[in-house]
Amino acid sequence: MSRIVCQDRRRRTGAPNRRWGRRFESGGATVIASDTASAEEFHTTGHLVVHSSARALARHIEWALARELGSAVSIEWHPQPLIPGSVRGEIAWSGPVGTGVRLASALHGWEQLRYEVTESSSPGVDGGRWMHTPSLGIAHLATDAGGSAVLTEHRIEAVLHESGGDPTRFAVALRLALATAWDEELELFRGVALGADLQADGGASVHWLHRVG
Q1: Could you tell me where the beta strands, DSSP code E, fall in 12-77?
Q2: Each residue of 57-72: pLDDT tens digit?
Q3: What is the pTM (predicted TM-score) of this model?
Q4: Vertex 17 angle, CA 191 and 154, to 5°
Q5: Does some domain include residue 120?
């Protein structure tokens, strides 16, 4: 099936596996990586960023992720200045194709969380980006090797059908297909994470967590 690749107008920077569709990098997380599996067993990589969470949920989030990854998770949590009393943190992961949706689903029950999960593309398989906010719920976008959103021919046809030829309705439907509202709401939180990286002495490291099995 043919694809329409929707490039973000902003210039992307950073490592290939840290693309979010908009300029975004965050650091400061520490995870305990499993060494029980070899690199040959893993098929793709990605990141999970919790932009805001109640501090009381931090350990529960780590436990939920550990269940999916089969490895202990210890995130370095930092205060989230945009929401007093909340925290933020991230992990980098490697594992089989489909790990991204498993991680996004593991956190979906906590409606008050703001988080993003990415999964890099692999041969024959598109990557993915999952975004969740309390007000909007969860959205998913397929992504290409460069991190750009990918809309299939079927999805574009659906947008055209929904708009009925009306330019305003088309713009609304396209924004929904591209999860623009999610990007706009999370952009402030991405900026907080980027600012923390710039202030860090040399940048905080993000250790890789490998999914077992």
Answers
A1: 44-54
A2: 999 999 999 999 888 9
A3: 0.75
A4: 95
A5: yes
